[in-house]
Amino acid sequence: MPTAAQTYRDNAILSASPSRLLTMLYDRLLLDLNTAKDALDAGDLAVADYRLTHAVDILSALAGSLRLDVWNAAESLLGLYIYVSNALIHCRVTRDVTLVIEAVALLEPLRQAWHQAADSLSAGTSWEVDAADDNSEVVAIA
Questions:
Q1: Which stretch is the leader sequence (predicted)?
Q2: HEC string of 16-75?
Q3: Cα–Cα distance between 47 and 106 in angstroms, integer?
Q4: Whole-angstrom Cα distance, residue 133 to residue 27?
Q5: What is the pLDDT of residue 11?
Q6: Is residue 17 very low, low, confident or very high in pLDDT (cuts 50, 70, 90)?
Q7: CA gyration radius for the chain?
Q8: Where do the domains of the chain lie, and which CATH numbers do they carry?
Q9: Please, what's the b/e burial string for 119-135 (b: 16 or more CB within 10 A of its CB; e: otherwise)?
């Protein structure tokens, strides 16, 4: 039987806009990475392994949701997701905390940028798009 917290979380996810879902994924990804870093520092390998595995799962979901046919920059973002995933998998084997620190440094600016974009959309800010531009689709993940 689900707890009240699980029901609340599930309802929040089901009712969230695509931009909010994306920011929720990034928030959880960075939470997992920071918790994994702390666990590695403390020698708690079980927690570190669980959080690193979950972070790789989130990166896989983000990579799988990219629309390479719609957004030219999607390939670069896909490359970043693959690079970070490989680093985290390597970290699970080597327990090298610097790999997690690098992942946070690479992904935190993206998390902040997605939050700013989502806030702009929810505030009703319009984005002007040049119809001749190949990047005419603003949303590449959904």
A1: none
A2: CCHHHHHHHHHHHHHHHHHHHHHHHHHCCHHHHHHHHHHHHHHHHHHHHHECCCCCCCHH
A3: 22
A4: 31
A5: 65
A6: confident
A7: 17
A8: 18-118 (1.20.120.340)
A9: eebeeeeeeeeeeeeee
